[in-house]
Write a structure and sequence with these properties.
498 residues; mainly alpha; 17 helices; 3-stranded antiparallel β-sheet; two-stranded antiparallel ribbon; MAIN-like; disordered N terminus; 56% helix; AminoTfrase-like_pln_mobile; elongated; single chain
Amino acid sequence: MEGGGDSGAGSSRRKRQAERRSSRCHAEAPPAEETVLEIEMEEEDEVPAVDVKTARKALEDAMKTRERLEGMGFGEILRMDRMRPDPALTEALCSKWDSEVTAFIFPWGHMIPSLEDVSQVTGLRVYGCPMSGFTYPGYSELAHRLLVLAEELGAKADLDLHRFLILFLGRLLFATRGDAVHCQFLPLLEELDEVGGYAWGAAFLVHQFDSLSASERQTSTSGFFSFLQVWTYLHLPALRRGILARPDLVPIARRWDPCRDTRTLSDQLASLQEAIDYYPQLDVVWQSYLEEGDEGQPWLVQARPYFGRSVWVHALNLVLPLHLHLCQRSLGLRQSAVEFPSQDRTPRPGRSFRGLHDTTDWWTWLERRHRFGPCCTRKCRTERQPSWRELEQVRRAAVADASSSGVAGSSQSDLEDRLAVAVRRAEETQADLAEREIALRAATDRATELQGQVDSVAGERNQLHIRAEAAEARVTEVTRELVTLQVQGSSVDQEELV
């Protein structure tokens, strides 16, 4: 019994201690409403004050920057969504590229991306001033002045635009392998008001050609290859590598999405190469833009005079030709699939050219070496073929001399003189052809005039002949009447005698 009393006392003691602890906790805990009020007060204190003027100014600056980019001709390409790359397709295209003629060589013939493709697919301007200027051995001073000192001078808007353009051009339009951003376009960006006057679309096409040629010596490709993907969707639709998701948008690159392929890259590449080798020729689309209009696309209206022309396109130290005569079916002309012999490689300035290590004025270089003049493009005339053969012989001799003697200074000057003589002969031949054309036109006009005179004389002669025939018929009729009268008179005389 005693043990039971002790246990009851112990349990009651524990109950009293538990009650005291619970009452103490209730006393220390604040009311729930007060806690909520404290939390709300803390949240209100953490909310920063909004400066309406600063936000409005930032919005106005962003709108002005967007308007300036629109005026430069980059608005359409900046509206494009990021397209998923298709490395298998681009590598399959690179395997068909011939850097000698700057064209794709397919089993059905040559195909070349043209200025019309660039304008229709990307919306870039292919007309304007050529992208020819100066290249420097280093750009640190110019980059410091345009990208750093501008902030100290307070030109924040120009500073941000300069930085954006150098990243946009160096990492998107004219991207190269690696993470480095080249500053070769900085001299063209120095005057922002003149940026919109350059033919950025033509320069973009040159860079595409150069990247395709460089891919022959590399294991991977570089550059803005969304253009080549969409070009393939349009001209080789039977490959089924793209989906037409938004058919009403412009430029055309905004309409397409690449198809997903879960196979490995090697399997995709092998399948694409086989599909291209056995591609049905009747499914090749040579003219993809016959049903496309110009409505809402002002860049197409001004670019149409440059479509369908064999021209030279410029991008600083890169100058490459468009051999559209190799794919005349893209111009709506008839042409059979003809294999052209490979041409000897003509040395041209590239990324390893000495102009990148010295300050070079490419305007002077072009006028002295190729006589391109200040125009962005110049039509290739067939009348110059004999003279260009001489130029080709001189270039081949230059390559042979360079390989045998290491291109000594005296031989180089001699070769330059010979090249200048050949160019002079070409110019003289062109002038002679122009004079002959004028003389031929004058002779044609004179022959036309003489033929008109001959026709008028023949007409008068025919009229005289008709008049003579009418007079002869009249004389015959009068003679008949006279004979009739004579017969009647003799019969009357005989009656009177009787």
